[in-house]
Amino acid sequence: MYVRLLEIDEPVAREIGSRLRLCVSGSAPLAAQVLEDFDARFGQRDPRALRHDRDVDDAQQPSDDGERRAGTVGKPLPGVDARILDEHGADVADGVTGELHVKSPTLFAGYWNRPDATKAAFRDGWFATGDLAVRSADGYYTLCGRRSDLIIAGGFNIYPREIEELLAEHPAVAEVAVVGSPDPVKGEVPVAFVVPRPDAGQDSSALVAWCRDRLASFKVPREVRFLDALPRNAMGKVEKKRLQNQC
Prior knowledge:
Luciferase, domain 3, GMP Synthetase, Chain A, domain 3, 3 domains, 3-stranded mixed sheet, 7 helices, globular
């Protein structure tokens, strides 16, 4: 939705932005570049600047304290505990990637009629989200992608989100998804599926070069493929399994 909103002419976008109180994103990753572009076009990132322009009681306002840090999901909401664990179930240090676990009174009790899945996902009241994440020293959490999306190329861990964020910064890229493609030598290699911006052209070699100049060699996509649209489910999430089937 935010990518589509960026197609609105800037004067109209500014008018819309002047009337917005709060913008939120969920369900699927919001690329840092999309956030920055939205901020530039609509002039709206921090709702606190507009909260008193509305006839809304402050007591009804959601908590909006803290920096809107592009690329992160921020800090846990009140009443939510979070921790990041390694594959052995030990807490990792700040700056180290692991699986995100959460605990909250509002957390769901389990999977419907799936006791085995519930038992596997919950450990001492903590829910294993399946999301890989890293925590900054000041408490901001960044999601690196689903654990199932992790690409292991020649023994190196590759997080698709890192490549996606980088490609999203390219002026020719509207949307992007990166998946692992089978490779007889390395096991897997990253392949990028890109939806180009209108009239941007489809130059895969330029996008690969863009990544090569900015990423370690093993993270550079082996191939860039262009699509008119990324496959999504009813919730709007990119269906990476369908993309992997095209590799």
